[in-house]
Here is the input.
Amino acid sequence: MLTPSKASRLHIRCDRQVRELLDKAAALAHMSVSEFVLRRAVEEAKAVVAAHESITLKQEDFAAFLAALEEPGEPNAALRRAFARHDASVR
Here is the structure.
């Protein structure tokens, strides 16, 4: 099995106590410190991105959202101005 090339480096600095903790945790997980830190950082990064890129609605709120998509209201003055600004900037 081929391992993809890792062309990008990430350098971090930490104090002695943090390094000792990372060394111990990595050893207990049977992996290198680099692999341990990278795996945990990627897991956390995915969680942060998912939390910021997803929306969770209650059932009744989701039903209201779908209803608004099916029957949108008439645009108000502010929305008509926004449409006009958009049209002017795109042309």
